[in-house]
Structures are given as structure tokens and as C-alpha cells.
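Data availability (excerpt). The following record was deposited with the supplementary files.
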Amino acid sequence: MDNSDILIVEDDVEIAAIMTAYLQNGGYTVSHAENGALGLVYCATASPQLIILDVRMPVMDGWQFLAEIRRRGDTPVIMLTANDDDVDKLSALRIGADDYVVKPFNPAEVVARVQAVLRRTHAVTRSDDVLSSRSLSINVRQHSVIIKAEGIDIASRLTTTEFRLITHFVREPNRVFSRDELLEACFPEGDTLPRTVDSHISKLRRKLDDAGVSGLLQNVRGFGYRLGEGK
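Predicted structure:
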């Protein structure tokens, strides 16, 4: 039985009630906020293990809420989108969502997505590996990414997916990873498109550049990506 606290941010009370019932049946404790502003109030006083977030809401929509939550930390977020198109999906992932579900949905699918995201998250937080390359030192348990030359921790600037990506590269600094391998290891389950990898790599590379580590992520034409240095 899982006792993780799930926050549902959804203005449709009926949908929230159905999801709450399914999640509680799966052993989760569940809280509900009817818009993004109330969701932020909840997060300021509690620490949900995962957030299920609707996109279209009054007062504060899901995009605004997600952007603010990502400024505050890396709590896993599953987005509920009304449009089954690449624009909403890519927007959710670019801003920092961990997964997305398209309405109308099967509530049992939402529970399965919650379980999958929490498994990935817990697998990272339980690991006590300290990873190192010439430029970076990563403590997975403490969720830190230290730029060695500057002595600064940039983990708070990274989305959950970006943290998974840089950790994945530093674990095997001499290996070239295909886009499909990166999708499987670092991205939400579902029909995520290979070009989404390029978008996340580009944003991660820009953040590393801004932190003084240029050229760290290299594109190997026809194959994928690699870390541009050994241990």
C-alpha cells in the first residue's frame, strides 16, 4: 500500500472526485485544489509527492502553475490536457511536466501513470550514487549538480527530465545514446516523440552554457548524443 500524498489541481469537481476515488482505492492519500492559485497555497504548507494538474482552469491555469512549481522545486507533475496534439504535449514537457494524459481518460490509466512516475522518482531519490565527470559532480540522493570550476549547484535550475538526462550522461560519459534510449530512460511513458529529446537537450545545454560549462553535450550526427568529456 502506497501512502504517497497526491494533489489534484482540477476545476471540474466531478473529474476530481472520480480520480480521488480511484487513487484512494490504490492506497494513496489525496488532496484537491480547484485552481492553480489554491494549488500553490496548498504546496506552500504541504509537500505532495506528486501533482495531477489540469491545463484549463480559472484564476490560474495549469501552465502558470507548472512554471511556478518548477521554480520552487522538482515535484513530479502529470498534466491533464484536453487536446490530443503535439503542441500541448510538447509544451507540457518543455515546461517541466513528467507525464501527460489526454482527456477523456480512463481513471485507471491515471493511477498507472502515477505509479510509473513515482517509481522513477523514488528510484532516483533512493540511489546514493555520487557521479563525477571532469566538469560536474552529481549527488543523486541530495539532488545536486555541482559545476566544479565554479563550485555552484545548478540542480534547482533543471527540470526533472533535465536532471535525469544529465545524470544519465554522467553515468556513462563515453557512451553515445540514441534518442530512443534517452526516451526510454529519462522521459515520461507514452507516445513521446523523438524530437522532444532534441528540445530538452537544447534547453539543458543552454543552462549548462549559462553556468559556464560550454560544449558539454555533443550531438553525434546520425546516432544521438554523448557527454563531451570522460571522467
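Summary of structural features: Residues 107-126 form the longest helix (20 residues).
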